[in-house]
Amino acid sequence: MKGLTKKTALVQGRTSMVSDGRLKIEFRLWDVYAEQQMVGLAYFTISENWRRVGHIIADSIYKRITGEEGYFDTRIVYVAESGPLNRREKRLAIMDQDGENHRFLTPADGKLVLTPRFSPTMQEITYLYYYGNVPRVYLFNIDNGDFEMLGEFEGMTFAPRFSPDGRKVIMSWAKNGNSEIFTMDLGTRKVKQLTRHSAIDTSPSYSPDGDQITFNSDRGGSQQIYVMNANGGNVRRISHGKGRYATPVWSPRGDLIAFTKMLKGTFYIGVMRIDGSGERLLDKDFLVEGPTWAPNGRVLMYFRQQRSDSSGGGGGANLYSIDLTGHNKRKVITPLDASDPAWSPLIPN
Amino acid sequence: MRLKFLSLIAALALVSACESAPEDGAGSAGGGAAAGSIGQRDLSVEEGTKEDFVVNVGDRVHFELDKFNLNSAAQATLDKQAAWLHKFPTANISIEGHCDERGTREYNLALGERRANSVKDYLVALGISASRITTISYGKERPVALGSNEDAWAQNRRAVTKINAPGG
């Protein structure tokens, strides 16, 4: 909390077993100078939930001190990687944002899964699945493990994301080789085409109010970041720096767009304002890609892939998180290699 | 679009050339041999098989960085693929589009799809029925050459024609 406030705060906590066998966890946050209690809450839960309650308390403290929502009681869905680099086994996996409570969602069956993203309710994941060697966008139900192909498209569908209200999935559809951006209404299953251009249009991401969409296109001759209205109108390019720009993702606060940038053989993770100004690069490496926002818009997670050698050594991939300030870079520990992280909203209580 | 139009003209010219070509000794070995080179085929491989296609025709073409157009070497290989497919009309094919690791995942999926469709369009222009052809993009997910170096990346920027049902 240092740096966020000049105030000094004190957290006091106590756990005890209550008569029905549940755990009672109390905490109080004190303002030391004012000699006042800022927050005081008690939670009752089965003892297996102790870590989650810890995260809820951490969010409560974060919010009281910074005035913003926290991000501790959240999860990450990502792609777990194993095996040789030319036959990589990829599986969906889910864990708490700190790497705990890890579990695999799909088996190691040789079928590729890529780019999972949470629905706003966190009950579903949309992702790219090579089921039957036919790459299409799918929905995965986290509770029961069911999966379902989204629509019957002639040609690959990919790069899916939910709309902020969870009613639509926006994605690319490669029709006769040309990737355009479409939405599918999950209720009516109606499909709507948003882009009409002979160039590649992909990686769409909604603004949090659902009014605008940022996406990746090479219509100007190289990969750049564009913004359009939610109906596909008023397309404008926002990235103007040197290099290629990709994977734009709108901040949950609405003020920034995170991206991957490629320049002279180096990959960067960065953010820019929604008009393209104020570009700031937070990390760089041989290959860093695919930022995802913590729900409070203050932290990014992404993956880093290392160089490989010609005998197949190296090439490992891992998840990292970094504060929007560029500080506090942290490797997220996973049982296997990891890529394509997606951060959940705060878990509903 | 001009490039696409020109390659279509070239493709049509090659169709007529193929029609008058001798039936036997189809093409030279390997991918992208120069025009006018002496053709040869490996007689230890049975004609019309998947292996025949790989060994005696050449199953893959390569692309420049971030490009999906077909250079002359790629076109020469695809001319031979088309001749083989005309000769074995029951063979269906799947064209796999691939990219190197130096791009982002979703864009590379789109680029791989473009590459696979470049090959498909060229073969269709040479008279191969589109109903015999499926395409699939693997983006950067299935490299053929390992190593983070220019040579491996060049090998991985490819479209591979896979024979599904053996002809003949």
How much helical structure, as a percent, in the residues of chain B? 40-55%
If strands are numbered along the chain, what order do they take across the biggest sheet of chain A?
6-5-4-27
Helix content of chain A: under 10%
CATH topology of the largest domain in chain A: Neuraminidase
How would the global form of chain A be characterised? globular
Total number of strands of chain A: 27
Structural class label of chain B: alpha+beta
Through-space gap between termini of chain A: 24 Å
Mean pLDDT of chain B: 83
Order of helices and strands of chain B: HHEHEHEHE
Description of the molecule:
The complex is a heterodimer of chains A (349) and B (168). Chain A has 349 residues and is mainly β. Chain A has two domains: 9-66, Rossmann fold; 75-343, Neuraminidase (6 Propeller). Chain A is built from one helix and 27 strands. Chain A has one helix at 50-66, and strands at residues 9-17, 23-31, 36-45, 75-82, 89-96, 103-104, 113-118, 124-129, 136-141, 147-149, 157-162, 168-175, 178-185, 191-193, 201-206, 212-217, 224-229, 236-237, 244-250, 256-263, 266-273, 280-285, 288-293, 299-305, 317-323, 330-332, 337-343. In chain A, the strands form seven sheets. Chain A has a four-stranded antiparallel sheet, with no helix packed on it. The model of chain A has no long low-confidence stretch (mean pLDDT 94). Mean pLDDT of chain B is 83; it is low at 1-6 and 8-34. Chain B has helices spanning 2-19, 50-57, 72-87, 105-125, 150-156; strands at 60-62, 93-98, 133-139, 158-163. With 168 residues, chain B is of the alpha+beta class. Classes of the chains: A mainly beta (349), B alpha+beta (168). The A-B interface holds A 85-88, 90, 112, 114-115, 128, 133-135, 155-156, 158-159, 172, 174, 176-179, 200, 202-203, 216, 218, 222-223, 246-247, 260, 262, 265, 286-287, 289-290, 305, 307-312, 314-315, 340 and B 66, 101-107, 109-111, 113-114, 116-118, 120-121, 135-138, 141-149, 152.
